[in-house]
Amino acid sequence: MGHIKIIVDHDKIDYSGPLNVTELFKIIENFIFHMGFDKRQDKDFEQNTANGKFIEWQISPWKWITDYARYIIKVRVLGYDILKTDALVHNKKTKIDNGRIIIVIDGFVEYDLQSKWEQNPLLHFLRAIYDNFIYKAYTERFEQRLVHDINHLHDEIEKFFNLCRHYSVISKQGP
Q: Rounded to an integer, what distance in angstroms lies between the CA atom of residue 28 and that of residue 37?
């Protein structure tokens, strides 16, 4: 286990209204696939409650940058009171989900993947000097690329939610 540096801390998206949860998951997974990340599923949890469904879905995709560093993005989706509703989508009556979705995105860069610099305190000190002074131009570029990728994912999710805002709900079904 190498040195993990937090780059993006709790980028949060909060949405309430009609949406298609499976389409949301597909959008996130397609984005991750097209950006070249390998997917790791951490949680996939669904529970029926008195007010509707509670959904917790978490993935931690990662991508090798060099032999020394890799990106890790943690995407956590929480769905509260998800109910099936009838809605007009492009003038067609369909069943979609309705509820509150909270998405939290974190971004990390992990350095020294083989833990070669963690064997004794002197090497640990030299790694800190190496990362902060010698290799600084590269590490800053890695961090900027990760922030760019996470902002791009955030924009894709916001576009999906803006599209869903135009659905007109006809009737709600109980839990």
A: 11
